[in-house]
């Protein structure tokens, strides 16, 4: 049993990590509902303003695994502070931006904040008692999704009461406090990897991710068969192949390909990709559906604030389930939670596709979505952390988060193409476009549930200091125990 001083230390560390993750997650989605406002204020066009989202996505996708790997080598606490400083600097620049170019640069700098996720998971793995790791990782993982949902909920009230610049000022305040607290209270992790940091793998990783994500982001407007999209996709495939070959031959790889081939890792990453398709596409397109004037034959003519409130149940249920996920994992196993979560998550997409005529139906759908994705997100992060050596926690969890982001890009691009397929130029999409789009997301989530069955079965490995039975451990420690791959 830990002494009270040590428990207090871990609680303070967790609060700092939670604040850091929440601030980053909020910045993922706060600007999504107000792009039109930013477009008007910064005197730009619709095609250019979408880069406020795309630039952030690209930057986060590149820096998330890289910052995790650097943290594994030079120290996670040190890199957490660096990451928070970058996130704060980008937020400050965005809050002060007077033209679209500066805003896009600011969002690129903010994307460095993606490193918060793998670094926080790594710090939990290194510093927390073994029996507390699964619960802490589960809550932090849930916060990433909860924050993304809350960003859409809070954007309207913030803009109505203040203006859109406060979408950056408020996270900036949280980030500054978290950075100071991290420097003062989060101990430097003792676990380090040996060797130098390879530059070529980092360049190749960045190159193929940029090609892939630009192609997916622009495909709905450029056309899936356009030369630019096909060329970028081909470039992504070639560069990814070269990257894998270089990593396999490297004495000090950025990402260990042997680790990525572990059954518990690649299967969990496959599920993460498919879960990302569904969840992030919903956050992007459900508000548009809700805000469509009812005269179109569907939609509710909701304001930004009202559409956010309809999404609020997902954030509430996701957080509640994330908090409880550790205890559930101890009793049932993390694989069971991923299978159950992805199976449950099919239901809300079917409701959105075929039962979207009343507000209460949409509230029910978002609440059920939070339960399903809350279970899946929390358990997936625990599986990754448990499956790899401590010194590879940062890069492994970084790639898992990155793969979810790639899935989100795929889902958003497919959804945009389906929804707008039958729309007249400059007109509203047909209801059938949304029906087919949400049905497609249901199909992707069904595949995610099937993929979850491939995850290796896990069993509980008692911590040396915990009681013999898991139930007694929960009572005695007031927390959870994790799973280990067999």
TrEMBL record:
The keyword Transmembrane helix applies. CDD domains: MFS_MMR_MDR_like (cd17504). It holds the Pfam family MFS_1. It comes from the Bacteria. It is found in: Cell membrane. The keyword Glycosyltransferase does not apply. Gene3D superfamilies: MFS general substrate transporter like domains, Multidrug resistance protein D. Keywords: Membrane, Transmembrane, Transmembrane helix, Transport. Its main location: membrane. It is a multi-pass membrane protein. Residues 13-460 form the Major facilitator superfamily (MFS) profile domain. GO terms for cellular component: plasma membrane. The chain crosses the membrane at residues 12-36, 48-67, 79-98, 104-124, 136-158, 164-186, 198-217, 229-246, 266-290, 310-329, 336-358, 364-389, 401-421, 433-455. PROSITE patterns: MFS. InterPro entries: MFS, MFS_dom, MFS_trans_sf. GO terms for molecular function: transmembrane transporter activity. This is EmrB/QacA subfamily drug resistance transporter. It comes from Motilibacter peucedani. The lineage of its organism: Bacteria, Bacillati, Actinomycetota, Actinomycetes, Motilibacterales.
